[in-house]
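Worked example 4.2. Below are the chains of a multi-component assembly; read each line carefully before continuing.
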Amino acid sequence: MKVWKGCVAIALIMALLTWNGSAQTSQNVRVTLVIPQPLFIAAVIPSITVEITPLEIEGPQPFKIGDWHVNIDALTPYRLNSSIVTVDTNIFDAGPEDFSTDCDFADDFGVCTDKTSLSDPDPQNRRGFGENTAGLNGADFMGEIFLDIRSWDVSQLPGFYIGVILFTTTDTTP
Amino acid sequence: MTRKILVALMIVASGLSLASGLVAQQNVTIEIGQSLYLDCVPPGQPGDIYYVIQQSDIEAPQPIDIGDWGCNVDAVTQYRLNSQFTLFSAPFVVNADTSDFTADCTSADDYGTCAPNSSLTLGDVDPNTRRGTGYNTAGTDGADFFGNVYVNMGVGPAGWDVMSSQLPVFVTGIITYTVTDTTP
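Applying the procedure described above to all two chains together yields the following structure tokens:
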């Protein structure tokens, strides 16, 4: 009887030792990366304020009213578009079609396009396109903004035009 | 001849002693069921890695640190410690694979030594995937190995291409740590 109890005790101890050891020579660790947003855009120049003087009226149309500059961080191929939206004006016939732009600089895998519209849909309002920018300080796109006032009819003074240029990035992954 | 006589005398003496109760025999059996134990989630150390890619990670120099790893090894033999991806899934990130991930070993104690290799690539082999080596740790709390896991998201046309239509996008995988007896 004692021998039998001893055997049971030894068996239990052996089982416990095996259990506690959780003996393993390999182990798995899970890795999870979450990417909530692969495109980031920031405008890096202040607003544009221009006062029209006789110089602009006499000058060749369109004339430059300012610069634009955006920076894009991307984990995907993308395109960059910009359009102007009229917020308020008291000038007859003034509208987005009077504004145009160009893109004359792009870096870090960014490429400029030659489109100039600020009022038509893509691809007419496309400023450029680019690729993954990981490890870089983001792709910089720069250009100028122009205005053509040949169609304007200013009847109230002071005449004004207020608009907002929206820059958008779009994932172009096929 | 003299030697044979001496051996015979010793056997006779031994028999006399046992018979007279002067000598007892005790059998000793030591069983070593396993010579290596691995615990890669030691108390106070990270286990799984969960990391959210932010804008600052895109701008940062690649690769970026996404988490730590730590393993504790109890050994009664020489060993090496390896780690690499054994499962990987990134269905919505074109160009992403396990070769974008690397690991280093920054600390090892109790006779453990870090290795300089960094590969975590699925299918790669030792010594590229070796994190360190070590020896018998009896009497110590086990050899602790620590390091970091990194990811490089590439750049340009060959870099990661995240599908914005599937946001948020997940990249998941399993890194398997193994210890192997290196006794020649």
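Take a moment to check your reading of the output against the notes. Chain B has a mean pLDDT of 91. The radius of gyration of chain B is 27 Å.
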